Amino acid sequence: MSAVPALLIAPGFFSSEVVRVALLVGTVVAVVSATVGVFTVIRGQSFAGEALGDTNTAGGSAAFLAGVTPLWGFVVVGVATAGAMELIGIQRPRGRDLATGIVLGFFLGLAALLLYLSATLENTTGATQTILFGSVFLVSSSTLPLVALLGAVALAMVGLLYRPLLLSSVSAEMAAARGLHVRAIGFAYLLALALAVALAALTIGTILSTALLVGPAASALRLTRRPATAIAAAAAIGVAAMWLGIVLAYDSFDWAPVGTGWPVSFFVVSLIFIGYLLSGLPGLIARSARVA
Amino acid sequence: MVNAWEVASIVAVVAGIVGFFVVLRGSAFVAHAVPNGSFAGAVGASLIGVSTLVGLGVFSLLGALGIGVLGRRGRHDVVTALALVMMLGLGALFLSFSVEYAPEVESLLFGEVLGISANEVLPTAALAIVCVAAIALLYRPLMLSSVLAEVGEARGVSAFTMEMCFLAVVALASTMTVPVVGTLLIFSLMIGSPAAARSLTDRPAVAMALSVMIALLTVWSAIAASYETDYPVGFFVGTVSAGAYALGRGWAAWRRRPAAQSLEGRGQALTTPSLPS
User: Fold this and answer.
1) What is the CATH number of the domain that holds A125?
2) Which of A52, A85, A114, A207 best probes binding to B when mutated, by most B CB atoms within 10 angstroms?
3) Fewest Cβ atoms closer than 10 Å to its Cβ: which of A75, A292, B1, B80?
């Protein structure tokens, strides 16, 4: 990754092993996040998604301490968090924010302790930043099969649950009237969410995983009301943001002020944010046309 | 150590009061997003060499008001999430430019209450007074708008204005508390204590007073425990807050025993808790 003058894509982009892994992992993560994210947005559980990402800090640092790959820490803590939220009452609209908040606060406290321990016991202060901000360029190709497997599990869960999940997300009463177990479906969904967030946390860092989850899905849902179309659109937006972000991050190795490149996360998040703002335009134009 | 006690007590009082409205309005996500995102401001401030407090203030205010404005059109939780990640993305960028490393970041995220110096007491106290005064001024309209937004509108209390005022107060509270307890854990204080208080009583004024007391007890015990064990304050704040909430819930459940089979939790509409927009 030496500093080479760049036009649009800096030379060596396609021949770089790191970039190839990043593109692959990024694609898997973007698709899984976007698919799960559509339901997150419909169910109004963005906060839960964000909290699951944040509590991964605890999982990541625990894995760091235990000396296993962070992904396992993410998955274990993610499932534990989802369970705790469910117990406190995330299924009730009124208690949802609170349940998420309490669990989040507790796990962040735990993260503080674990990071402190890993800093004092292992003398590895860099752990915090790696866990929090991650980098898709740091993913080793050996985790690829695991990423693909977990992604497939999350997608399969959503696929299996698709119709009942959609119904209970849109109208819990109607789902309950049809004899669906709304609470069990909600919990199963929360587990899929935990998996998707763990995957995203691995690639663009725990605190930015929310971007991939919520951004593309919210943009897609502003463009179309049909769930299946929204999932496809969200996946397309997510993958586009990820690829473009990786290209820009690769190019940025030549940019000021330092020769180390700008973080991928920054580009991906900015692109997603811009995408969300743009997705509001059609609606805005339609509204102003109606007023005029 | 004395400075730590003073500043932490001030922070607890503000968190207890502002947090009461956070819980009442169901704005836990905003209370998480604003302090958390403002961390980028602190990093940015150190990059261009201005006071951390200025960076935190600018970012938390921009973030909070941005959420308010964008939230008029989009879904509130989605907008909050996106504003948060955008600020964090900027934080990641600033960090990559900055030469300071992990320890500073960690102390911003998790706070360093025991390292507070005497000259930090005064600005914190001043901001705290502004915060509490703002809540006192807004008390009645804000309460009305939080509980019955429609009635408030009918009486001429604009829900949007109240939302913006409230968000500005949250931003102010974050600015003063972040350097002390860290971006991630101010949130525990703002949620845990008022939530515990609310499960003990239904009367707003009593709940607010209880909320302040629980927050004070939380930080005091956390500081003492941290001093004894050398473990981070944030860990104790998080654990004690969650514990207080669990106790409050347990007590409320025990008190309501006969009415156990209520309608709660069965087939309620899964619409977003309707924040005034």
Assistant:
1) 1.10.3470.10
2) A207
3) A292
